[in-house]
Amino acid sequence: MTPGMQLYTAQSFAQRQSLVVTAQLQQAICLLQMPNAELSSFIESQSEENPFIELRLPPAPVPQAPLGKTAPEDWDRVAGLAADPGPSLYVHVAAEIARLGLDAPQAAAAQIFLDALEPWGWLGRPLEELAFRAGLSLEAAEALLARLQKIEPAGLFARTLAECLRLQAEEQGLLTPLFAAVLAHLPLLAAADLKGLCRACGCGMEDLKAVLRSLRGLNPKPGALFDPAPPPQRPPDLVVSRGAEGWRVDLNRSTLPAVVVRSDAAEGFARTAAPYVGERLSVARWLARAVEHRNQTTLKIGAEVVRRQRGFLEEGPARMAPMTLREVADAVGVHESTVSRVSSGLMIATPQGTFPLKSFFTAALAAREGDTAGSAAAVRHRVRQLVQAESPDDPLSDDAIARIISDEGVTLARRTVAKYREQLNIPSSVQRRRQAIVTGAL
After folding, report:
1. Residues near 373 by beta carbon (within 8 Å), at least 6 away in sequence
2. Who's near 61: CB < 8 A, 6+ residues apart?
3. What SS3 state is found at 427?
4. Chain centre distance of CA 230
5. What's the distance, CA 127 to chain centroid?
6. Model-level pTM greater than 0.70?
7. 353, 363 Cβ separation under 8 angstroms
8. I want to staple 257 with a disulfide (CB 3.0 to 4.6 A). Which of 29, 40, 370, 411 is the partner?
9. What is the spatial distance between Cα 79 and Cα 57, in angstroms, rounded to a whole number?
10. Tens digits of per-residue pLDDT, 126-154?
11. Contact 118, 124 (CB under 8 A)
């Protein structure tokens, strides 16, 4: 031991605060972002494990009111159902294959080809791979493919865009040598290089325009004709309406489940089961409180969103106001993360349409002195409007769009326009001009 060094023991005490995230707290957090349908599934799963929890579903939707009478305020799920879209692409092609009179080995191979059919009607796998899987030689696979490509509508089972268009042109009697030459040089057409296309095909501009007019009448995605109607949008969790006292928001009671605590069922258990009964009853009561808290929190946040977005409700996307999670959280008296969770999973029905609640949270953009700041969503809407209204022969550059919007009161940089344009899937002005050239030639 080093001289002068002493060993001793001592105790020290320190106080530390920490948040213990219990299983119930985790579930309560998850409940905040559950849409009504998911909430129903969760409560149902809990009721299967707990004899004191009962899921009470809303009554069946009320039919639409007769003409001249007031329709119910709750969301009508029946009204959102689409009509029968008819047979799918798969069913249609399977029926057509059955009419080809193939023998058993060929029919089995045709099924492999059918399974590789993409929704838009093209063959989604290389022919060599399908031939191997079907146990066919490449020549036999080519022969089978040729028969499958006779199925209506023409263009099904094509492997490329050129082949898809060729099949249709052949079926319609359009496949002249010049038409075939154009199909062989589709990249030049995509680049709107009509002069280069004339040189490659050895034709004049007028002859080329005649081919392009016919080409425009073909369908590059024949399978899309069988696409079913898009599924109905799921019912919203919040419904906005306008009454005598102004805008109001309500929970969509037509899809909102409720938790019923069956306290009376505890009497049927023996005294020896008292610990189990007490624990299960406690869980049931907690779940009922947690669902009610979820509903009230959702309603408060929805009401604040509606209060701040009156311009949007009355005039549409161009009047969407800038709004942040923190602003709503401060106004409602909850944590910012709570607003984020609620807005991420729920839908709200408004007179302008049904939207994810999160779509109303958008940043503010700088405004000139005396002007009201615009939201990013409103500016994106304005960018789309300007592009839709532009002259096809003289599309607006990003700089021009930025100047127009800045003159309207919102300071906007060219790079911001470019970012919004990309978010909206709008091509650049150069690309739009190329498209206009091709369209004009047609």
Report:
1. 322, 364, 365, 366, 367, 410
2. 74, 75, 76, 77, 78, 254
3. coil
4. 11
5. 33
6. no
7. no
8. 40
9. 20
10. 999 999 988 899 999 999 999 999 999 99
11. yes
